[in-house]
Write a structure and sequence with these properties.
The protein is mostly helical. The chain is built from 14 helices and 3 strands. It has one domain. It is about 70% helix and about 5% strand.
Length: about 375
């Protein structure tokens, strides 16, 4: 046990724990004073439970040899696709998205664990074919299941998570050393796919979220309401903030989905610019330590897997904070370790545990 903690990345772990603590500190007052319907006040205690389960998953994956994940990557990916299909048939609609499967008093969001599962599957495939990545065959083979999963996710519809999977795939390609000419061609294909998604897959409300990004005041009581209220909350905090539990936007329920999508706006309003910078520093530390673990990994699978997990954390943080300050469309993406939600929290903590396992192995 002493040897295990000697090889532990304490900086990564402490940064994650501080983010968890900050999230709980912001969630407690809004889950009490801001309850709009029966059950809202239980968000805090559910999140405490999710933190406990997530930390258990973190330590379980920390002691687990990540290299064994290669043996289960295909089964995990197929199982993830099955869950994405099941949620379309049996899923519960929450805020216009059919993305949850009810299990007792909790809801599983299959797309969250699928993000890490996809990272595992892609890491295995590209590490096995590292010497022949200039062959279009391997790029195409990896592209087909990724596109299929993206279509299932868009069917829910969940644009934010679909973007995360796309970013993950591109990040894995970059880490694997794919020819730059191929990447330019892929960029052109991505533009075509984006146009097709706009014309045939995106719902009207999703298009409104994107167009409202450029002019939220065009529909201040409709599609632009969330962005306007969020930017007001962020700006009103000033440097020192109004104090935990004293944010007018969050406590008086002007700010929608304040415990999930807009938790960063709550922190910025109540803890001010200093609180926002603290979030940036902690998130940046997690990203830097994750990249460092990827660089120090002794095998290709560990390198790509660590980079893939880092990319998921990075793009989710980027999109969520971006939509909170009005520079990205509202897509329903959670802010890792801060937003309320069991599936996302437990998955990201498990991902951090995998990073610790890679770090532990690289230091032997």
């Amino acid at each position: 046990m002493i040897r295990f903690f000697h090889r532990f990345d304490w900086i990564l772990f402490v940064s994650v724990v501080l983010l968890l603590g900050l999230g709980l500190a912001a969630l407690y007052p809004i889950s009490q004073a801001g309850a709009q319907k029966p059950g809202d006040e239980s968000h805090f205690w559910k999140q405490v439970f999710f933190c406990a389960v997530g930390l258990a998953a973190f330590f379980a994956f920390s002691v687990f040899d990540y290299r064994n994940l290669k043996n289960y990557s295909t089964a995990l990916f197929l199982g993830g696709l099955v869950l994405l299909l099941m949620v379309l048939v049996f899923g519960k609609v929450i805020r216009g998205t059919t993305g949850w499967i009810g299990i007792g008093g909790f809801h599983l969001q299959p797309v969250e664990p699928f993000k890490v599962i996809a990272a595992i599957a892609l890491a295995k495939y590209f590490s096995l074919h590292a010497r022949s990545l200039n062959d279009w065959k391997h790029i195409f083979i990896s592209f087909v299941p990724v596109v299929f999963s993206i279509l299932l996710i868009l069917k829910q519809p969940d644009l934010g998570s679909a973007l995360v999977i796309v970013f993950l795939w591109v990040a894995v390609l970059l880490m694997s050393g794919v020819n730059k000419k191929h990447l330019l061609i892929l960029l052109a294909v991505a533009v075509i796919i984006s146009l097709a998604a706009w014309l045939f897959f995106l719902k009207d409300y999703q298009k409104e979220r994107i167009t409202t990004l450029f002019n939220p005041n065009a529909d201040p009581l409709g599609a632009g309401y969330n962005v306007i209220q969020s930017t007001v909350a962020v700006g009103s905090g000033g440097f020192w903030g109004k104090g935990l539990g004293h944010g007018s936007q969050s406590q008086l329920n002007f700010l929608p989905e304040k415990h999930t999508d807009f938790i960063f706006a709550v922190i910025s309003e109540e803890l001010g610019f200093g609180g926002a910078i603290f979030v940036f520093l902690l998130a940046g530390t997690v990203i830097v330590r994750s990249i460092r673990i990827a660089k120090n990994s002794r095998d290709g699978f560990g390198k790509i897997l660590a980079g893939g997990i880092a990319s998921v954390f990075f793009v989710q943080s980027l999109i969520n904070i971006g939509m909170n300050i009005g520079v990205m469309p509202v897509t329903g993406i959670t802010l890792p370790f801060l937003s309320y939600g069991g599936s996302s929290l437990i998955t990201m903590l498990a991902g951090m545990g995998i990073l610790e396992s890679i770090h532990k192995t690289s230091r032997r």
